[in-house]
Design a protein that fits this description.
3 domains, three-stranded antiparallel β-sheet, elongated
Length: 191
């Protein structure tokens, strides 16, 4: 009696039918076909696209479809299509909020923070990618030495960052001692 062997392999979606027909009569039992949603086929085999969290997979899906706005039902439909429960939509959305990749634009409506699927490029004059550094460079470029928290929020929104990152931007600026407090909600740029 011959020994049995289990064979697992990957193929492109369009070649699935041909592969199954080629195995007909040779393979024993019902074939199990599963879609692979987080990999690309390269010369060296499979390569993982993202870390595999549902939020990253959904963002990849948005980029692939060139979509910048979405509703909660879009997340549920996507999760169902990759084999996850639609009830995981709130935790997926929470992951995206924690990563500051989306913002709420209405009741049950959301948009990517950058307004497009590609992040904005930092201008060459700006010394770093951190929001605090960018804000200091912006103030110096416009020769504005004093600012308030409202000015910082407006700037963050203009570069596509969430206004919720105001606190972290202030931490960067105070840690590096690039600003000085003048009074309640008023600051000045040093040097």
């Amino acid at each position: 009696m011959d020994d049995l062997v289990r064979i697992a392999f990957f193929c492109k979606d369009r070649d699935t039918g041909r592969a199954l027909r080629a195995l007909m009569g040779i393979a024993q039992g019902q074939p199990e076909v599963y879609p692979v949603v987080n990999a690309d086929l390269t010369k060296n085999g499979l390569q993982q696209r993202t870390r595999g969290t549902t939020s990253e997979l959904f963002l990849e899906h948005l980029k692939k479809n060139n979509q910048t706005n979405f509703v909660t039902d879009d997340i549920k439909a996507f999760l169902s299509s990759i084999g996850y429960s639609p009830t995981s939509a709130p935790s997926t959305l929470e992951q995206m909020f924690n990563a500051n990749t989306v913002q709420r634009v209405g009741r049950g409506k959301f948009a990517l923070v950058y307004g497009s699927t590609k992040p904005k490029q930092v201008e060459e004059e700006e010394p770093g990618a951190r929001a605090g550094d960018q804000f200091i460079a912006h103030l110096k470029k416009n020769k504005q030495l004093e600012f308030s928290m409202a000015d910082l929020r407006v700037f963050l929104k203009s570069i596509g960052r969430s206004p919720r990152s105001t606190y972290s931007a202030m931490q960067v600026m105070t840690k590096e001692k690039t600003i000085r407090r003048l009074g309640r909600n008023r600051y000045t740029v040093k040097g």
